[in-house]
Amino acid sequence: MKRLLQIEFIKLWNNRASKVLIITYFVLLTFIALFAAIKFDIGNVHFQLADQGIFNFPYIWHFNTYIAAFFKLFLAIVIVSMMSNEYSNKTIKQNLIDGLSKKEFILSKFYTVVVFAAISTVFIFIISLILGLIYSDFNELSIIFSDLEFLFAFFTKLLGFFSFCLFLGILVKRSAFALGFLIIWQIIEGIFFGIISWRTSMDTANSILQFFPLTALSNLIKEPFSRLKAVQSVANQIGEPYTLDYSVHWYEILIVLAWTYIFIFLSYKLLEKRDL
């Protein structure tokens, strides 16, 4: 495993574009802290996001993982580019000539995906912990370390998404087309949802679409904004209280892990049958 990771990170670090994207990704994750500085002054009304409880424990684990997930596209570009460079630079053929098996080649890519997801999760954990200790109204250990399942959901979400990108990179061979296919697949799932909900009901559509890859990834961490007290208060005043389930469910994790396995397995089978 160590040897395979070394091979991959040498390739990535020697690629200027990949290096810039990786650094940009982690810099952007730190920008979550800027939410604390956002202020709105409208006449005598002074509004600051940090005062709305977004950095309160344990809510911060939900909020930060949801926001951080939007930046995953930067590493997705790195992953699909990583595969397209293997084909365009003929390094995949050279690696196989040098004694690397096709299984080891796929494993090296998967280990890279796991490391990216793990480092991102640890990074968000540290940022959230620091922000929470500074701004949270609740600092009891039992509260600080509750709802940590959102971090596991975040890791699983990145693992599944990056595995999907890896599969597309092997399938299409060109990074631009692979990312385009990702967008097309999102549209396809949206069309399916529209058709099913039109023919049956929204509940039936949600029940079926939860097994589709991008919808399954989306379901892991629901939007956190309606959990804010200010939003709940307004909803109650207008008689439309929110009754959403924000929990991370084991079956949602299982669906994404199943897709992760499918994507890696299909990546290996594609590489095994392809004439390089």
What number of domains?
1
The side-by-side strand order for the widest beta sheet comes to: 1-2
Query: What's the quaternary structure here?
Result: single chain
Percent in strands: under 5%
Q: Could you spell the SSE succession in H and E letters?
A: HHEEHHHHHHHHHHH
Strand tally, please? 2
Q: What's this model, at a glance?
A:
The chain is mainly α and 276 residues long. The protein contains 13 helices and 2 strands, in the order ααββααααααααααα.
Description:
This protein has 13 helices and 2 strands. The chain is mostly helical and 276 residues long. It has one domain (2-273). The model has no long low-confidence stretch (mean pLDDT 85). The radius of gyration is 21 Å and the shape is globular. The chain has helices at residues 2-13, 16-30, 59-68, 72-88, 91-97, 102-135, 141-144, 149-172, 175-199, 202-209, 213-220, 229-237, 250-273, and strands at residues 39-42, 45-48. The two termini are 24 Å apart.
Keywords:
single chain; 276 residues; mainly alpha; two-stranded antiparallel ribbon; 13 helices; 2 strands; 3% strand
Q: Which helices and strands appear, and what pairs or packs with what?
A:
Blueprint: H1 2-13, H2 16-30, E1 39-42, E2 45-48, H3 59-68, H4 72-88, H5 91-97, H6 102-135, H7 141-144, H8 149-172, H9 175-199, H10 202-209, H11 213-220, H12 229-237, H13 250-273
Antiparallel strand pairs: 1-2
Helix pairs in contact: 1-6, 2-4, 3-6, 4-8, 4-9, 6-8, 6-13, 8-9, 8-11, 8-13, 9-10, 11-13
